[in-house]
Amino acid sequence: MKFCYSIFTYFIFIIFRINLTFGNLHRQFSPNIRYHQPTNQSSAFNYSFINVKKLKGYILSYTSPLADFEVANKTKCVKECVKTEGLCKSINLITLTTDGYQCQILAHDIYTTPRNLITQSDSTHYIITNKCMKSPCGKDEKCVPNYIDNTFNCYNKPSSCSEVKQLQPLATSGFFNITLNGKRVQVYCDMHTDGGGWMMVGNYSITQNNFSNPLPLPVGDIESLDQVSTGNFILNSTHLPVLEGWSPIKEVRFFCYKPSVGETMDFVTSQTLLGINFKNYLIGKFAYTSSWLNNAQAPTAFQKLPDDDSSWLMEIYNLGIPNVKKDTRLWNHIAWLSGLKHYGLYRDRRECGDYNIFEPQVGNLEQIGKWRFYVR
Ligand SMILES: *[C@@H]1O[C@H](CO)[C@@H](O)[C@H](O)[C@H]1NC(C)=O
Ligand SMILES: *[C@@H]1O[C@H](CO)[C@@H](O)[C@H](O)[C@H]1NC(C)=O
Ligand SMILES: *[C@@H]1O[C@H](CO)[C@@H](O)[C@H](O)[C@H]1NC(C)=O
Ligand SMILES: *[C@@H]1O[C@H](CO)[C@@H](O)[C@H](O)[C@H]1NC(C)=O
Ligand SMILES: *[C@@H]1O[C@H](CO)[C@@H](O)[C@H](O)[C@H]1NC(C)=O
Ligand SMILES: *[C@@H]1O[C@H](CO)[C@@H](O)[C@H](O)[C@H]1NC(C)=O
Ligand SMILES: *[C@@H]1O[C@H](CO)[C@@H](O)[C@H](O)[C@H]1NC(C)=O
């Protein structure tokens, strides 16, 4: 999000080096902590200070601020921030219906968690002035201020959900703009499952049972990754090695659920040699290996994630299928037990732990279900 800082009011708060004795006030900070170091130790003006800019009508939304308490006036809130010696990175000041304000001292700012800044009419968000306000970094870089010594760092803009996660450890799942080969691409990141950092590369759903031959699979390219929101998009696997070149892929994750089967599958390629080789096959970097068929070791290529309540793990014997077209590798037969349990999307088959070959007379073709594909 971009702001025109000049339209917001600008304040300076100074704390002189006096002995502040607050005692042990609930959830407030101990006094006598220096923030910006005075430039001249022998100066008569031996003080700590911050400059702040107000974003009126905004709040940087966090459920657990560093401190959260009522104050009689705004000055008191900003002074509390100064006393944290850099732990405080921004402030929310919420006007109470009674006299006074709710003062929230935050360990985050709009640079690391821009998505948390939302409008809220009774709140003002205070940014500590910093060098990033002058946009010193390159076009493809992100600026993160360091408030202690008033410097900044430029980071490459994230090119994957796992990099977003590193920059914004508290980010919640949702859509993010990442930079792929200099281009902005909006992607969905699962920031929750197994530590988060998963980029969704396929979201396919059947919302109604339909006993006719399903429509062709909705295959698209990297620029259209935001189409996962439709529940009707899967990335052309041919593009995965390209994606991998811009944003290394260590793991592939497969999720599916079909009420008619009744088990949630959520598994990820493991870090065993078989798991890594098979992951490299799925993302188009490795040729198919016939030893992946009828192989008792096949289940060791994957690990179950916590929400997987299926019984598949020790039962599958086959990974991938020979001679599959490169553009369908990721989602075509990721794992299977011949004629019984198949996982993935393939021509007219939509399988999730079942065997759903074309049998219109049986009417088991297009049954309600959801399939999700992720990389990390
Ligand atoms: C200024 O503050 C620092 C840190 O508390 C202290 O070491 C120094 O003696 C102070 N200087 C003056 C002139 O008070
Ligand atoms: C520090 O402050 C003293 C007293 O005000 C002054 O004489 C001295 O030149 C200052 N030093 C610097 C580096 O600004
Ligand atoms: C702000 O409130 C503090 C006590 O919370 C008080 O000491 C101070 O004088 C007040 N300042 C103004 C400008 O009202
Ligand atoms: C991505 O960038 C576009 C264009 O600036 C913007 O409209 C969109 O809201 C951004 N998406 C996210 C998730 O921030
Ligand atoms: C069932 O599938 C056919 C072929 O894909 C499609 O034309 C039809 O609209 C679908 N019916 C429903 C109710 O979704
Ligand atoms: C995936 O598709 C479903 C529709 O079937 C949709 O409700 C869901 O929000 C989509 N997931 C994402 C992350 O967009
Ligand atoms: C996948 O992408 C390749 C290369 O861009 C293209 O030739 C192929 O037709 C695409 N496949 C599908 C199913 O869209």
Automatic annotation (TrEMBL):
MF (Gene Ontology): metal ion binding; oligosaccharide binding
Matches recorded under InterPro entries: Fibrinogen-like_C, Fibrinogen_a/b/g_C_1, Fibrinogen_a/b/g_C_dom
Domain of life according to the entry: Eukaryota
Listed transmembrane segments: 7-25
One cellular component term from this protein's GO annotations in UniProt: extracellular space
Protein name: Fibrinogen C-terminal domain-containing protein
Residue ranges constituting the Fibrinogen C-terminal domain according to the UniProt record: 152-201
Keywords, in A-Z order: Calcium, Disulfide bond, Lectin, Membrane, Metal-binding, Transmembrane, Transmembrane helix
Gene3D superfamilies referenced in this protein's UniProt entry, alphabetically: Gamma Fibrinogen, chain A, domain 1
PROSITE patterns from the UniProt entry: FIBRINOGEN_C_2 (PS51406)
Organism (species): Clytia hemisphaerica
Lineage: Eukaryota, Metazoa, Cnidaria, Hydrozoa, Hydroidolina
